[in-house]
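Researcher: Structure prediction, please.
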Amino acid sequence: MAPPGCKFHFITNDIKDFCGEADKLTEIIKAQNLSQKDSVNFVRKNFNKTILNEFCFICDLSIEYKKMLDSKVSCVKLSLDSLIKNKINNPDIQNDDYAKLSFIIKTANICVPDKIRHIKVFKIFKEINNKIYEVIIKTTQNGEENFFSFISYKQQKKNKK
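Model: Predicted structure follows.
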């Protein structure tokens, strides 16, 4: 269940179900054989905004992270729009990786505050099974909403002995 501080509509709290819905829409997009940029434009032109604005609750931010973002709420949301864009732009990221988002955010090895244009963000780094994940969380200018923005990973190189 989404926390009381989240006053927005959530389609599900189960990220695996949410990813499944995104997969269906992503397959429609892939069938169009468009560039990444054109794919994002296709989504915005052809899919209902109400559907794209549906959210999945990921987790609550710690008090420390909330302060870093200058956020008024702890709730972190993943919109269907962001998930589809990430699936198009980062096809190597699997649904199991998205399912780890809550764990990655809550147990980050490194958290770096930053600013992308005028948007307050922080980058989170977490190593899991020889993958170093980078996750970006952003907040709105008024600090009333926090969103997952991006995920990627790099394979950790094994040291040769």
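Model: The CA atoms of residues 139 and 145 lie 6 Å apart.
Researcher: Thanks, that helps.
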